[in-house]
Design a protein that fits this description.
- 35% of the residues are buried.
- The strands form two sheets. This protein has a nine-stranded antiparallel β-sheet with strand order 3-11-1-2-8-6-7-5-4. Strands 9-10 form a two-stranded antiparallel sheet.
- The protein is an alpha+beta fold.
- The chain is built from three helices and eleven strands, in the order ββαβββαβββαβββ.
Length: 192
């Protein structure tokens, strides 16, 4: 059975198509699929671009309460899963790096990111639209100042770049909702 495919439709008419990798990050894939089914990604402007590092599609749970959840560290939940290397062409799940938690906030690395291995799971690979990532990387940006995170450099496109919708093809497979982070679980401790 083929892996699921997600098509990210942008407001300029372009598509970024990704193959999801449930064998590498099963709960992370379930989180992405959950968010896509619930249209959390739809009608959302890309929030952060660090030109030589990554395109951070969202750092606010897509500005929607239903997107502001956390899932446990993939590799504690599934110790049999081997973390993949993060590089250009991968799709990674962002989240709370201090606690190695994720959610549904995904990003596209623009360079090799060995510092992400085991922290921000690689859950997909771009199979169409890498040229769109390079276009986004080269856009004119403006700074965003977040009082709660003054040390974090955030730049957004001067001209907003919007995801219109995300469509998924499951090839007849069913995928459950993600396992959510439970603070009282002793497995949920700071990154080691």
């Amino acid at each position: 059975m083929p892996n699921p495919i997600a098509a990210i439709y942008l407001d300029n008419g372009k598509i970024i198509r990704i193959e999801l990798l449930p064998q590498a990050a099963p709960n992370t894939v379930n989180s992405f699929l959950y968010a896509a089914r619930h249209k959390i990604f739809d009608d959302h402007a890309i929030e952060r671009i660090v030109p030589e590092d990554w395109i951070d599609v969202s750092y606010t749970g897509f500005g929607k309460p239903e997107g502001q959840y956390l899932i446990p560290n993939e590799f504690r939940l599934h110790p049999e899963a081997e973390p993949l290397d993060s590089d250009f062409g991968c799709v990674c799940m962002g989240g709370d790096g201090d606690r190695c938690l994720s959610g549904c906030e995904f990003f596209f690395p623009l360079r090799p990111c060995p510092e992400h291995k085991g922290m921000y799971p690689v859950f997909g690979r771009v199979i169409e639209g890498k040229e769109e990532l390079l276009r986004l990387k080269s856009l004119e940006l403006e700074p965003v100042h977040l009082e709660e995170f003054p040390q974090v450099k955030i730049n957004r496109p001067v001209i907003p770049q919007k995801i219109v919708k995300v469509e998924i093809e499951l090839f007849g497979q069913e995928y459950p909702d993600p396992v959510l982070f439970q603070p009282e679980d002793p497995q949920n401790k700071a990154c080691e």
